[in-house]
Amino acid sequence: MSSLALVILCGVLVAVGVYLILERSLSRIVLGIAAMSNGINILFLIAGGRSGEPPIVGTSEPEAMADPLVQAMMLTSIVITLSLTGFLLAMAYRAWQLRDNDEVRDDREDRAVAKRQAAEAMEEHEDKGDLVETVAEFHDETDGGNSES
């Protein structure tokens, strides 16, 4: 029963993490990475199997020892998550200083893809004879609009 609870907890944490990572705010992305990494660490615990004796040769039988690979992977995951969280927090703080928000903006490639999809949708609707208006609005202060430097 406890492993089922861990599997459910792992699924919920990873799902919440993915949802938050897909948001536009850097602070939510940081929280999403933290939740997702905790879910992955729980997945490592589940995949490691039952607990056992310390994996030190000579102290116990090899069959009774815990798997040391799981411990190494979890430690590596914790270190990588900590460094990524620190980097994202610094980036969010800098974005807040420069723009008074931490929202991730669209870049030129995103706008070009959206315009191409809108044009294709208009052609498709014109072929069907529908009168559909497609309005795409993009905000980017770097394109000569009202930039704050």
TrEMBL record:
<dbReference type="InterPro" id="IPR050601">
    <property type="entry name" value="CPA3_antiporter_subunitC"/>
</dbReference>
<feature type="transmembrane region" description="Helical">
    <location>
        <begin position="6"/>
        <end position="22"/>
    </location>
</feature>
<dbReference type="InterPro" id="IPR039428">
    <property type="entry name" value="NUOK/Mnh_C1-like"/>
</dbReference>
<dbReference type="GO" id="GO:0005886">
    <property type="term" value="C:plasma membrane"/>
</dbReference>
<feature type="region of interest" description="Disordered">
    <location>
        <begin position="106"/>
        <end position="130"/>
    </location>
</feature>
<keyword id="KW-0812">Transmembrane</keyword>
<dbReference type="Pfam" id="PF00420">
    <property type="entry name" value="Oxidored_q2"/>
</dbReference>
<keyword id="KW-1003">Cell membrane</keyword>
<feature type="transmembrane region" description="Helical">
    <location>
        <begin position="69"/>
        <end position="93"/>
    </location>
</feature>
<keyword id="KW-0472">Membrane</keyword>
<feature type="transmembrane region" description="Helical">
    <location>
        <begin position="29"/>
        <end position="49"/>
    </location>
</feature>
<keyword id="KW-1133">Transmembrane helix</keyword>
<protein>
    <submittedName>
        <fullName>Na(+)/H(+) antiporter subunit C</fullName>
    </submittedName>
</protein>
<comment type="similarity">
    <text>Belongs to the CPA3 antiporters (TC 2.A.63) subunit C family.</text>
</comment>
